[in-house]
Amino acid sequence: MPIITCRDVALQFTNDQTPVLDQIQLDIQEGEFVSILGKSGSGKTTLLQLLGGLLSPTKGVIKVLGRTLTSPFDEITYVFQKPILLEWRNVLENVLIPLELKRKPNQDDIDKAYQVLSAVGLKQHVTKYPHELSGGMMSRVTLARAFLMEPKILLMDEPFSALDAMTKEQLHLVLLKLTQQFSTTTVFITHDITEATYLSDRVVLLGGYPAHVKQEFPVTFSRPRSKKLTFDSRFIATTKQLYDLIEGLEDDEKD
Amino acid sequence: MPIITCRDVALQFTNDQTPVLDQIQLDIQEGEFVSILGKSGSGKTTLLQLLGGLLSPTKGVIKVLGRTLTSPFDEITYVFQKPILLEWRNVLENVLIPLELKRKPNQDDIDKAYQVLSAVGLKQHVTKYPHELSGGMMSRVTLARAFLMEPKILLMDEPFSALDAMTKEQLHLVLLKLTQQFSTTTVFITHDITEATYLSDRVVLLGGYPAHVKQEFPVTFSRPRSKKLTFDSRFIATTKQLYDLIEGLEDDEKD
Amino acid sequence: MMKRTNIYSILLFVGILAAWEIVVRVKEISKIILPAPSAIGANLFQHFQSGYFYPHILATSIEVFGGFFVGAIFGIGLGFLVAQSKTVREILQPYIIASQAMPKLALAPLLVLWFGFGYTPKIVIVALVCFFPLFESTVTGLSHVSREKLALFHSLRATRTQTLWKLRFPTAMPYIFSGLRVAVVLSVVGAVISEFIGANKGLGALIIASQGMMDTTLMFSVFILLTLKGIILYQLVNWIEALFLKI
Amino acid sequence: MMKRTNIYSILLFVGILAAWEIVVRVKEISKIILPAPSAIGANLFQHFQSGYFYPHILATSIEVFGGFFVGAIFGIGLGFLVAQSKTVREILQPYIIASQAMPKLALAPLLVLWFGFGYTPKIVIVALVCFFPLFESTVTGLSHVSREKLALFHSLRATRTQTLWKLRFPTAMPYIFSGLRVAVVLSVVGAVISEFIGANKGLGALIIASQGMMDTTLMFSVFILLTLKGIILYQLVNWIEALFLKI
Amino acid sequence: EEEVQEVVNEEESSQEEVTTEFELEKIRMASWSQPITEQANLYLAEERGWFEEAAIDFEFIPGAGGGDAVRNIIAGNADIAFANVEAVLLALEQGEDLRIIYNIYPENVFNLISLKESNITSVEDLRGQDVGIYSRSSGTYQNLLVLLHQAGMTEDDVNLIETGVLNFGPLMNKQVVATAATDTGLFDAQRNELGEVDVIEVKDVLNTPADVFVVTEKTFQERKEALVRFLQVYRDSVAYTMEHPEEAAEVAVGAAIDGQDVERNIEIITIRNNTSTNEEIAEKGLGWLNLDILQEVEQTYYDLGLLSERVHVETITTNELVEQLN
Ligand SMILES: Nc1ncnc2c1ncn2[C@@H]1O[C@H](COP(=O)(O)OP(=O)(O)OP(=O)(O)O)[C@@H](O)[C@H]1O
Ligand SMILES: Nc1ncnc2c1ncn2[C@@H]1O[C@H](COP(=O)(O)OP(=O)(O)OP(=O)(O)O)[C@@H](O)[C@H]1O
Ligand SMILES: Cc1ncc(C[n+]2csc(CCO)c2C)c(N)n1
Ligand SMILES: [Mg+2]
Ligand SMILES: [Mg+2]
């Protein structure tokens, strides 16, 4: 049984606007890594927020772990597109927020937070406040915050878009390790086709007005995937294929 | 004579922290398109803000158009890393802000704003308010705002990082056309190496603690550059070269 | 249909009135100390019918509106000036704090001496009383703009005045309205207290007169009028705020 | 070295005092109407030396602190409650508006009657007066959290209480401090007015006594004491705010 | 209670034993004012321990006007009120059961003051002029009406102006031609260089007793004996203060809120000593109530419209307690 299912899901923000999403059908299996691609403004964030229980569908049903989703579940951790930090807390304190909401963090928690922060390359910056951080550093704080929770389901909205190639590669490894270790089900929005291919079991293409799942594209490279996979010709071919597919879909839509 | 020169520029945010930038030497010629690459948190934004007159160097001198820079110049338009919009103004009104600060916008200005908004793909969304926009749409509003000003010097901080591949390509064309038309001097921060190669006359690599210009990498493809250039083998080779260069520099720095 | 909470509200109100009436009747509390709600209602009705209240309501209204207007202009205006110019701020700082800290209502007797009788001293007091919360909230609001937006305006070479009008002012709006809500209520208090000191008309004068006549029932009636006046003004501010937010 | 603006401030002060002194002397203004600054200075000095002021300052301080404390607890507390529970908000809404709109200082004579003489009625009045700005600023502050942060907390399944303490409260802090500044100054006014109604001791009682003696000079001295008191309390709030921001 | 009385009589001189061995009976006196020098005899009595000697635990409850004093006894915040007659009449009109038991000041203290240069010599001269009063709830208003009434005028014939308590300011500022005030008010104004004035005294028209002690009917019935002890101390202290105004003046420095200046204290106390007695009182004894005058006052106020119905003040006024004093 899939861990996440969407049936005929539609979402309309205001009655006077056309729906943003309509007729969304989506099944995601436990432990699966699904990337969502789509043009800017197509409705990716909206879909992810629906999956996270942050928005409620206007039509249709979303089930997570067999239960109908009405508000966020404990098993789900959501990484927002724009890094959201509390200005009055430093990096470490920001990372500890979700834990604090569950229980008083103990020394172990703090040690683990340091580890995660170090994994995202912020070891030197734990005591900085948000206004002292660069854009990419802010994103990485929110990533550390998510990783620390070792979630069952991880929803990430363009988490690496503010990062340079090197840092991004490092974090790919961190993410893959984590999802492997906890067999985390991951839904991942990105604009980076190579990244989507490298990380995913399946790529979902969103498009149309209102947006729906235009195409699903399975990626079958075996796991664990090494960094070298990206230089593999099969990998490059797959990426190209995906790229062409997207371009084709886009051309259809031209007005 | 270069339009922008940095001599021995250093910047330190607080006295108790080590400087972020030191010994920055940089000359940028009129009409040149320079990209800045560097790891997240290396100091790219800091450097760009120095060039924009938004920060003042702790040491050294920055000259723009022969004048020492102390605060923003009229000839410079700056696009922030994080889209900054006024929530109480809709898309069109946000785009018109810089103009409004100069004079009362007339019908021509508004028509032009519509054109620019249409060029960035927001024609359908001019009356939306910031909270109704997707992340990429917000970035595009700030791009439209910058383009409308037809600036002499354009400083852009990761302007396309929130955009999908297709939209990004479209906007590359818009940007190249604009910079060509007004022989705009552009300094461009990006994490996308392909993008940097495609757009730039020169790529500047920032790195080290404190950061300085590690390497400058000229890109000599003739202009105008077509979309097809990116499939050219010479282009791919140059990109790979740049990628390797960066990786090499990074490895040096490993601690 | 009515909302459930509205029904609770009304029930609570009725309950309080009933309890009050019963306590007064059972304990035979003197009407000088605490008149029964029924007596107050009758008193209100009677005086409205006779037209007794109208000139007093009018007089207090003139003071409230006049003073509020003057106080708002000075409070918001000086708030802008202080937020605008660092020099002005630093020079005036101690005076502003002093003028804020001064118990202006206690000044009432002297103001009568200086400004003569009639509306002037009362309008001055109301204005003084309104000034402070408006000034405070204007300055607070104008200085609570995010760094990012200030950076944007800085990069656009916006002048100080442009930043003020196009950035700081819209940001300050909810703060200023919060200040207006406080000020409008205080202006009623200011008018009443200034009328305590010396006035032949106005709801405050009526309170003094009712005290002199030992007519506590009338005093309560006047309180109710004052409270209604406050509520109307308060809601007026809310309504104007809603109107502004819509634009 | 002193800042230039500080020097201007002081010069302005000296200038005002000098002009005042000259006007009073040249125009031979009666000391009942406007005493000279020199006379006020002498009066202050004399009464401080004789110890005349101390019990009055103490009495007013007790009322101010007691009332401020009670008012702050209720104002901020109820602000939290109302921000927290929609039901409570909707039921209490009309009462809160009414209680805010009511000119509480005008209630002073009745409160004295109900609560007897002594500190109680004065503390009640000060508390009532402080309540409103604190309540208003707490509610405003608690509801000015950005949607994004609320979304984050929603996604983290934070309870209402957690959102209140870890998100809304820190956001509301500057608003609450702004309310505290207004409240602390109003608390002095409240104490003085309540002492007008009937008190043996306190700076407000002293104002009434000075009026009875036609001793305008003493009245000015008391104003100055009250203003100083207000300034000290105001700066105390600023200082506590700075302390909080540091933590 | 009788026991207490006996013991007090026996051990009049050794107050310490009384306070340690016997319960003091609380008497709270609601005044129309703060503790001011005018009532210096009370502070003298406190200071000398005369209240303790009479087994009374005395407390001064301040107020802002005679109305406050009367309301405070009705509300139970005080046992006995030191209030002007007008306040009592108005409370009676509201249906309260009160008893007037002692005549504190048999003389009317109100007057009308004008600067000499304004040349106001009779009430008639006020016609059409601006005349100052404290407020419409003050004795200045009521007594000015009495003056006007006697001259066949009403308040519509003059332009009444509420000036607040600093009423001599507008007079000196020439914002009014005349102002209604009390004798002590006039004295203070003159200390502050008011200059030459004309004074029209209200007592020449209607000699309203300025202040009386008043209690609720309930207190009167239940605590007669304690009231007598209180009144005895009060009367004795007045008599003593008349003999030794400078001693009272000294005590007032510490006890009265406006008592800083001893010289002024003596003057004020002397003025109040004079209003505490007159020829008739000298004969009948301090505190004696003249029912005829009170009836005349009621009649006048009824005629003036200040009272809308008759309250029969003579029926609630009693010399019963005064007669028990020695
Ligand atoms: N206002 C500030 N105060 C203190 N330190 C700051 C401030 N702004 C930036 N820094 C520090 O300066 C360094 C460089 O920041 P900068 O924003 O220039 O990085 P960047 O290269 O733009 O990174 P990114 O790609 O993530 O945007 C970082 O270590 C950051 O913590
Ligand atoms: N709160 C809202 N109210 C009204 N419309 C909204 C709201 N949020 C988003 N939209 C609209 O819904 C559409 C989809 O937005 P969404 O944020 O899902 O896009 P996206 O695919 O995530 O884009 P991007 O890649 O730019 O982040 C857009 O047209 C946007 O204007
Ligand atoms: C000696 C003496 N002087 C002044 C007053 C004050 N006073 C006189 S009438 C009045 C109005 C109260 O209703 C007040 C306050 C007094 N009682 N006794
Ligand atoms: Mg999005
Ligand atoms: Mg940056």
From TrEMBL, chains A, B:
SMART domains: AAA. Residues 4-233 form the ABC transporter domain. InterPro entries: AAA+_ATPase (IPR003593), ABC_transporter-like_ATP-bd (IPR003439), ABC_transporter-like_CS (IPR017871), ABC_transporter_ATP-bind (IPR050166), P-loop_NTPase (IPR027417). Coiled coil: none annotated. It holds the Pfam family ABC_tran. Keywords: ATP-binding, Nucleotide-binding, Transport. One of its GO terms (molecular function) is ATP hydrolysis activity. This is Nitrate/sulfonate/bicarbonate ABC transporter ATP-binding protein.
From TrEMBL, chains C, D:
GO terms for biological process: transmembrane transport. Residues 57-237 form the ABC transmembrane type-1 domain. It is a multi-pass membrane protein. Its main location: membrane. Keywords: Cell membrane, Membrane, Transmembrane, Transmembrane helix, Transport. One of its GO terms (cellular component) is plasma membrane. PROSITE patterns: ABC_TM1. It is found in: Cell membrane. CDD domains: TM_PBP2. It comes from the Bacteria. The chain crosses the membrane at residues 64-83, 95-117, 123-145, 175-197, 217-237. Belongs to the binding-protein-dependent transport system permease family. This is Hydroxymethylpyrimidine ABC transporter. It comes from Halalkalibacter wakoensis JCM 9140.
